[in-house]
Amino acid sequence: MKALILLAKAAIGFVWLILLINIFHPFPGVAAMALYIMTGFLFMMHGLQMLIFIGAFGDKITMTRWEKWSILIFGIFALLDIRRKHMM
């Protein structure tokens, strides 16, 4: 399970890399606009996940600053990793 979570985090990291490259060096045509929309959507969804998780479980488990921000970056895969670490 740990290897799959790591693989999924690498895939999401690659997606973020492409989205950030598009911000600083836009792709040609309508691809840039589609990637802008995807960037906003991904940021909002992961931000919402982070706020909900910290609001619901922030006082029940202790998380490092990196764990909190990793939810914003990796989404559900960070949540699975945090759960795996705190359940052991």
TrEMBL record:
It comes from the Bacteria. The lineage of its organism: Bacteria, Pseudomonadati, Pseudomonadota, Gammaproteobacteria, Vibrionales. Keywords: Membrane, Transmembrane, Transmembrane helix. This is DUF1145 domain-containing protein. PANTHER family: INNER MEMBRANE PROTEIN, INNER MEMBRANE PROTEIN-RELATED. The keyword Aminoacyl-tRNA synthetase does not apply. Coiled coil: none annotated. The chain crosses the membrane at residues 6-24, 31-54.
